[in-house]
Automatic annotation (TrEMBL):
Pfam families: BcrAD_BadFG. It comes from Leifsonia poae. Gene3D superfamilies: 3.30.420.40. Residues 6-259 form the ATPase BadF/BadG/BcrA/BcrD type domain. Signal peptide: none annotated. PANTHER family: N-ACETYL-D-GLUCOSAMINE KINASE. It comes from the Bacteria. Transmembrane segments: none annotated. InterPro entries: ATPase_BadF, ATPase_NBD, Euk-type_GlcNAc_Kinase. The lineage of its organism: Bacteria, Bacillati, Actinomycetota, Actinomycetes, Micrococcales. This is ATPase.
Length: 297
């Protein structure tokens, strides 16, 4: 029987699953759809994840421990509840918010993780080891720097400029093309009628393209997104987060250098002692590290 450890990264659109032996040999590394993932209720969430574990772990292998980063697990109590549900299913587990995978994934002991992907959140720990969260309130009212929120904010900026009678600087046209419409009212309907991450998020690339093409409005949307992400770090530091570095990851921050550069510059100005790192491995590697720590005590 082969003993394995499992890392899980449950995000808004996909689930990363990595299976290793204790000596680091890779057994499996896959990405599964996760549009129906929800961290609540904890029992259902644990069963959903356990089903995916069984799909990926080879038959006959014994799972020694699981390290889970879960989007939507936004309090210590919720994470502990999910751990308990895993234990009931026979899986010793360490569960954290998905942003907390970033620091161990980067090989850093003390840090703040910032995710900007489907959503956005920052997570750190204080001197007593208690988790601290900032952001993560969802793309309808928050999650600045995440793909859906960037599209939301860009649409607002473009339509407000139109109401002011200002000429389009490229942002409005870029959004209309992205949504497949030909007028501002049609754009508003396309955004409002389906306020989902699946509808908004994929259009974020159009905002960055507009900024690169010279749209000042798109550039300001991106700069404000970086400002809000940096503010999450500021809030955690003020609340006692202990960190040597900020580790950033997520589909937007990883694929849009403009956003990462703006975020890095703001953090460096405010907190010169903090290194700012863009994660160069999949966050699920942090889940493997948590599972290894759990398995080896």
């Amino acid at each position: 029987m082969t003993d394995v450890i499992v890392g899980l990264d449950a995000g808004g659109t996909k689930l990363g699953v990595r299976v290793d032996t204790l000596d680091g040999s890779r057994i499996a590394d896959v990405s599964l759809p996760a549009e129906d993932w929800s961290a609540s209720p904890a029992g259902s969430a644990a069963r959903w994840l356990a089903d995916r574990i069984r799909r990926v772990v080879p038959k006959g292998a014994r799972v020694l421990a699981v390290g889970v980063g879960a989007q939507g697990c936004d309090t210590v109590e919720h994470c502990r509840e999910l751990e308990h549900e895993f234990e009931l299913l026979g899986y010793p587990a360490t569960v954290v918010n998905d942003a907390e995978l970033l620091v161990p994934a980067a090989g850093i002991e003390r840090g703040i993780g910032v995710i900007a992907g489907t959503g956005s959140i920052a997570v750190g720990r204080d001197a007593a080891g208690e988790a601290l969260f900032s952001g993560g309130w969802g793309w309808v009212i928050g999650d600045e720097g995440g793909a859906p929120a960037i599209v939301r904010d860009a649409t607002i900026a473009a339509l407000l400029a139109r109401d002011e009678g200002l000429p389009d600087d490229g942002l409005l046209n870029a959004l209309q093309l992205a949504f497949g419409v030909s007028s501002a009212p049609a754009l508003a309907r396309a955004v409002n009628d389906t306020p989902t991450a699946e509808n908004w998020g994929p259009r974020a690339i159009a905002v960055f393209a507009a900024a690169d093409a010279g749209s000042a409005r798109a550039g300001r949307v991106i700069d404000r997104s970086a400002q809000r992400l940096a503010a999450l770090v500021d809030q955690l530091v003020r609340r006692g987060a202990v960190a040597d570095a900020v580790v950033a990851a997520g589909s937007v921050i990883a694929n849009q250098p403009r956003l990462f550069s703006a975020l890095s510059a703001r953090i460096t100005r405010a907190h010169p002692a903090l290194a700012v790192v863009l994660l160069d491995d999949a966050p699920v590697s942090g889940g493997i590290e948590l599972a290894r720590r759990r398995a080896t005590g």
